[in-house]
Amino acid sequence: MDSTLAIEDNMSALFRAMTVFRQPEISANVDPDPNKNAWRSGRSLTFHSEVSMLISCTQSKPRMAGLLDLRRIAGIVLVLGATTALAKQPVGQFALADITPHNVDISQDRNGLRVSMPRKFWQDPAREKLSDRDFMALLPVDFSDGTIEAEVKSNVDPQAPDFARGFVGFAFRVADGRFEKIYLRPTNGVADDQVRRNHSVQYAAFPDFRFDRLRAESPERYETAADIAPGRWINVRIEVSGAKAKLYLDRHANPTLIVNDLKLGADRKGKVGLWIESGTIAHFRKIRITPGRPTK
Predict the structure, then answer these.
(1) Most buried one in 66, 259, 260, 295, CB count within 10 A?
(2) Is 18 in a helix, a strand, or coil?
(3) Residue 18 and residue 81: Cα distance in Å, rounded?
(4) 27 within 8 A of 137, measured Cβ to Cβ
C-alpha cells in the first residue's frame, strides 16, 4: 500500500509539472487574429493526454500503479521541457515572438527558424504568370545601410510544383509595399543544365522590377551561377551601401553577385524580410543584422 501511495504521489507531482511545461505557442501562422495564434505543439497535446490517461488508470485501479513505467512519463516531461526551451532560444539576434509572418508560416525547430508558404498561395502557371512576390517573415529592424548575414537551408516540398527551385533569400528596406531582394535558387546550383545554373542567384525589386523584367531587359546582369544546393547550409552575407549591394556566399572573400544600381534608390529604409516563394521549406539560423555602411 505504501508503494502504491508513493507512486500516486509521484503521478500527482508529474501532473502539476505538466501545467508548468505546457507552454504556449512555438509557432505562428498568417491568421491576423491573435487569439488563433496561441497554437500548442503536438508534443504538448500528446503529453497532456498520455499523463491524464495514466493518472486516471492509477486512480481507478491502484493495483496497476506498480506496473506503470514512471520513467516513460518523466521522459515525456523532459522532451516537452526541451521543446519549450527551444522555442525561447533566439535565432541569431531575434526571438520567434519578435518575427512577424507575412503570408507565411513560421515556427522554430532544431534546425532554426522554419519558414514555409501555405499551399493555397503556391502559384499555378496554368492560371497566372510566374513571378517573385512578397511572401516573407519580417524582422523587427529599421534597416538602411549595413550587413545582413545568416545561414540558410532550403528544401523543396515533396508536393511542390515543377517550377519550384527552393527559392530563399532576404528582402531589405521593406516599406510601403516595396523592397529590394537578393535570393537563391538552390536546385539550379546542381542542375544538369548550364542555363539554369546561371540563374542560381537573383536580384530583384518589388513590385516593378521583378526577375522576369530584369532578365528580359538586362540579361545576366542581375543573376549568376553559384555553388549552392538544396538541403545544405549556406552562409549568406549581403552588404548594402547606398544604391549598391553585394552578395557573399559561404564566407568567400569575393562577392558572388554585385548590384551597382538598386532600383528603389539609395536613401530608402525599412524592415528586413526572410523571403521565400512557392514550394520552399526554408530554415534560417545565426541571423545577424549590422547597421551602418560596410567597411569593405
Answers:
(1) 259
(2) helix
(3) 10
(4) no
pLDDT tens-digit map of 193-210: 999 999 999 999 999 999
pLDDT (0 to 100) of residue 69: 55
Residues recorded for the chain: 296
Domain 96-291 sits in CATH 2.60.120.560: yes
Looking at 67-71, 137-141, 264-268, which range is the least confident one? Answer: 67-71
Rg (alpha carbons) of the chain, rounded to whole number: 24
Sign of the torsion formed by the C-alpha atoms of 115, 120, 121 and 127: positive
According to DSSP, the residues that pair with 115 across neighbouring strands are 106, 282
The DSSP 8-state label assigned to residue 94 in this structure reads B
| Mean pLDDT of all residues belonging to the chain | 81
The set of cell numbers assigned to 222 is 542581375
Instruction: Write down the pTM of the prediction.
Output: 0.73
pLDDT for 92: 87
C-alpha cell at 46: 500528446
Using DSSP, state whether 146 is helix, strand or coil. Answer: strand
